[in-house]
């Protein structure tokens, strides 16, 4: 408790705040030791071609295997990792692990797919991202053409000039750039034309209520049409139903991702994802058929 600053000073520290501060400290300490003890894991979620139902890519999604808390979703620890700077080491681990996994699948004889990795603002602006990515590509033997980095509009807008030059360096390495959560920020598509990006991921918030919500349906259709006219690929996030899938496909959206195609799961549980859109006679049809 604060003392000696007059009667009200002690009320600055409430029991609730104390608990919260202690929790954060504990969380930070746990995060640090988890990096050393291999307690992070990547889950992978399929991205499919909406026209054929075929698997074209995977997004790597980070989880924390906490000894006491169980599997912790990224929303519960990435903000703190970002704040403390730990995100740069964690992000490096994510990149390396995702690249290794991509090669492991190919070693198993599975057809190559693109690997999408989320990049945090701090990682993006630290100045050594390009060097880090290059050394990871070199160490792992990952083909840059199969790597895609996901960044957000708001990240780019923080410092446009720096962002654009970093994006050009990444793109010059043959790595694709995607704008994640498109529509959640404020940039216009015309503005995006200035950036060396190859695809837009339409934010799940706009996909959630289509096709019934006519406003969202109009926004999504316009975004797809403009993206197509700018030669940008579109990926719809959060597809959960056949209705959403059909609507997006009919509007010319090329790719999709969501529970409808598969939830994010550990690598070992994904072998069947490559059968999607490629029916084999000895498998039950409902397990292998693409979206219908
Ligand atoms: P994101 O990159 O937009 O990832 C998509 C999120 O939507 C994932 O949540 C995924 O599990 C969820 N999702 C996918 N399909 C559906 C669906 O059909 N319905 C619903 N309701 N949700 C769906 P997750 O895994 O909890 O990740 C949340 C966010 O955490 C990610 O959003 C990304 O911004 C961040 N994140 C995840 N992994 C990493 C990482 O390795 N590094 C960094 N910097 N951020 C990460
Ligand atoms: Mg993402
Ligand atoms: Mg997203
Ligand atoms: Mg999101």
Backbone CA Rg: 21 Å
Major sheet: size, sense and barrel closure?
8 strands, mixed, barrel
What is the ordering of alpha helices and beta strands? HEEEHHEHHEHHEHEHHEHEEH
Proportion in helices: 40-55%
In whole angstroms, how far apart are the ends?
A: 62 Å
- Global morphology: globular
Percent of residues in β-strands:
15-25%
Q: Which ranges are low-confidence, i.e. pLDDT below 50, for 5 or more consecutive residues?
A: 1-10, 281-292
- What is the tally of beta strands? 10
Number of helices: 12
How does the helix and strand content classify structurally?
A: alpha/beta
Spatial strand sequence of the major β-sheet? 1-2-4-5-6-7-8-9
Region (Disordered): 271-292
Protein name: Diguanylate cyclase/phosphodiesterase
Domain EAL: 24-278
Give a nutshell description of this structure:
This protein is α/β, with parallel strands linked by helices.
């Amino acid at each position: 408790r604060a003392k000696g600053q007059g009667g009200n000073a002690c009320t600055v520290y409430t029991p609730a705040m104390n608990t919260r501060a202690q929790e954060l400290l504990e969380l930070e300490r746990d995060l640090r030791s988890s990096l050393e003890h291999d307690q992070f894991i990547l889950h992978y979620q399929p991205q499919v071609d909406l026209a054929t139902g075929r698997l074209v890519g995977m997004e790597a999604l980070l989880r924390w295997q906490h000894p006491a808390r169980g599997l912790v979703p990224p929303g519960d620890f990435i903000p703190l990792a970002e704040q403390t700077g730990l995100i740069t080491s964690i992000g490096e681990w994510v990149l390396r692990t995702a690249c290794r996994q991509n090669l492991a699948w190919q070693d198993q004889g599975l057809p190559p797919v693109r690997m999408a990795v989320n990049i945090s603002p701090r990682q993006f602006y630290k100045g050594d991202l390009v060097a880090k990515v290059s050394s990871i590509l070199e160490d792992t033997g990952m083909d840059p053409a199969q790597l895609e980095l996901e960044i957000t509009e708001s990240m780019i807008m923080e410092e446009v000039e720096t962002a654009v030059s970093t994006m050009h360096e990444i793109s010059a390495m043959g790595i694709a750039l995607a704008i994640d959560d498109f529509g959640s920020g404020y940039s216009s598509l015309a503005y995006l034309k200035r950036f060396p990006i190859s695809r837009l991921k339409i934010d799940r918030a706009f996909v959630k209520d289509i096709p019934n919500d006519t406003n969202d349906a109009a926004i999504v259709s316009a975004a797809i049409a403009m993206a197509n006219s700018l030669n940008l690929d579109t990926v719809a996030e959060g597809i959960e139903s056949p209705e959403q899938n059909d609507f997006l496909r009919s509007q010319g959206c090329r790719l999709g991702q969501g529970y409808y195609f598969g939830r994010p799961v550990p690598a070992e549980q994904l072998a069947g994802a490559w059968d999607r859109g490629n029916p084999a006679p000895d498998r039950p049809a409902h397990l292998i058929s693409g979206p219908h």
